[in-house]
Design brief:
Length: 171
């Protein structure tokens, strides 16, 4: 998982294995024990936007924007079993099932994916038909603070690559 800062004080919480998805409150609900799921990320969807609070004891609290300030991400029924359900619950900063530990990833990694959630590794070839476009996205985790990427192609006669990762074939 990784946290993506959304430049307005909010974060999306995204799985590295499916970077077009995000942690999402089911149907943008706000009721106690509303289920949390992985769902296609949409920047404007309040169900996929989270604020993160930190306390002096090293705990993090994840607050879903769709539910206001009175709900937090929680493990339902304090479960410690594999497959325990994750929900939002009324905020209780003393409840252990609402406290999270987050660690910064020190391994440098770049994940490249397309709008269909296909992952691409370094040097991997993918097929794009003449006349098609493909949008690529990239996520960097590591020590650098920048999330800016430079997109390029090895052969400008075959495809063009825009600064935002759009690949367009040439006829």
């Amino acid at each position: 998982w990784y946290l993506e800062f959304l430049n307005d004080g909010m974060y999306s919480i995204r799985p590295l294995h499916a970077p077009a998805m995000a942690l999402n409150v089911y149907y943008g609900g706000s009721a106690n024990n509303t289920n949390v799921q992985i769902y296609t990320f949409n920047t404007n969807d309040s169900a996929s936007r989270w604020t993160i609070r930190y306390d002096s004891e090293g705990h993090y609290y994840l607050n879903p924007f769709c539910a206001g300030n009175n709900s937090l991400l929680a493990v339902q029924n304090n479960s410690t079993a594999n497959g325990g359900n994750v929900v939002i619950q009324n905020a209780d900063y003393n409840a252990d099932n609402q406290k999270w530990y987050l660690e910064k990833c020190t391994e440098e990694k770049i994940v490249v994916y397309d709008n269909d959630n296909n992952l691409y590794s370094s040097g991997q070839t993918f097929i794009i038909n003449i006349g098609e476009n493909k949008q690529l996205h990239a996520i960097y985790s590591g020590q650098l603070n920048s999330q800016e990427f430079t997109w390029s192609t090895q052969n400008d006669n075959i495809v063009s690559v825009g600064s935002t990762g759009i690949i367009q074939t040439k006829n």
